[in-house]
Amino acid sequence: MHPMLNTAIKAARRAGTIINRASLDLERLQVARKGPKDYVTEVDRAAEEAIIEVLSTAYPSHTFLGEENGQVAAADGSQEEAPEFQWVIDPIDGTTNFIHGLPLYAISIALMHRGQVTQAVVYDPSSNELFTASRGSGAFLNDRRIRVSGQRRYHDALLAAHLGNAAMNGNSPFTDMLDESAAVRRLGSTVLALAYVAAGRLDGFCGVGLKPWDLAAGGLLVLEAGGLVSDFDGEQLWMKTGRVVAATPKIFPQMLGYLNG
Questions:
Q1: Residue 15's closest CA among 97, 100, 125, 129?
Q2: What are phi and psi of 123, to 5 degrees?
Q3: The pairing of beta strand 204-207 with beta strand 228-230
Q4: What kind and span of H or E run contains 53?
Q5: Contact 246, 219 (CB under 8 A)
């Protein structure tokens, strides 16, 4: 296992301990709103700080991009306009689920080296499922190699989506894509949806309005599990645009076909 991936796993597990402890007494949580339907708790902040502490101790020259703290400079004080190594972190993807006691949320940690994601950890602390990937070395669930599903028939495909209420209610260009599949799920956690595509539990995912911390780790998992990922035009700008399609090799072009008429 790559040493940087091993350190990221250590950081994810430490954050998972914080989250699991808090999940035992949700009534005491202090919840704030960052925006409409966008919540944050002191657990999000504590988990992110724990992750950064572990990673910055091991790699003081690395920078961070986190959902709660934004850009965080390197611990050694070095400054780079385009940092060689940057960790992209979402301490709890699925905070709304978490505060309701719904165990569909995960910790996401990805390492970007010169702008390319090279290491990925997605950890579900409620189920103790650990998804990992290193570029060029495959994707794993609790040390067992995983692959995307072999689904070929679009009408039998189970998808997940993060498209907003209008899209899910049939008032969008996504209508045919969703209606023609077997079923669509809204998990409330993009990183878990992408991890489930990588593990073959879902056949595809489509999302809009997403951030780098929603996509970085999960995107690498899908790619290393044999799947395909792109923006809606089939290009590799999904980390920048926040518009993403991820699916098995057979379902992926069919999803793009629906999106592009």
A1: 125
A2: -120, 125
A3: unpaired
A4: helix 42-58
A5: yes
User: pLDDT tens digits, residue range 162-187?
Assistant: 987 656 566 577 888 999 999 999 99
pLDDT digits (tens, 9 = 90+) for 104-158: 999 999 999 999 999 999 999 999 999 999 999 999 999 899 999 999 999 999 9
Give 26's pLDDT tier (boundaries 50, 70, 90).
confident
Three-state secondary structure of 151-219: CCCHHHCEEEEECHHHHHCCCCCCHHHHHCCCEEECCCCHHHHHHHHHCCCCCEEEECCCCHHHHHHHH
Question: Are the beta carbons of 252 and 245 closer than 8 angstroms?
Answer: yes
Domains of the chain in sequence order: 3-146 (3.30.540.10), 154-259 (3.40.190.80)
Q: Which residue has the higher pLDDT, 197 or 22?
A: 197
Q: Distance (Å, rounded) from C-alpha 248 to C-alpha 43?
A: 34
Best CA proximity match to 41, nearest among 49, 51, 29: 29
How far is the C-alpha of 114 from the C-alpha of 135, rounded, in Å?
Answer: 13
Q: How far apart are CA 251 and CA 233, in angstroms?
A: 15
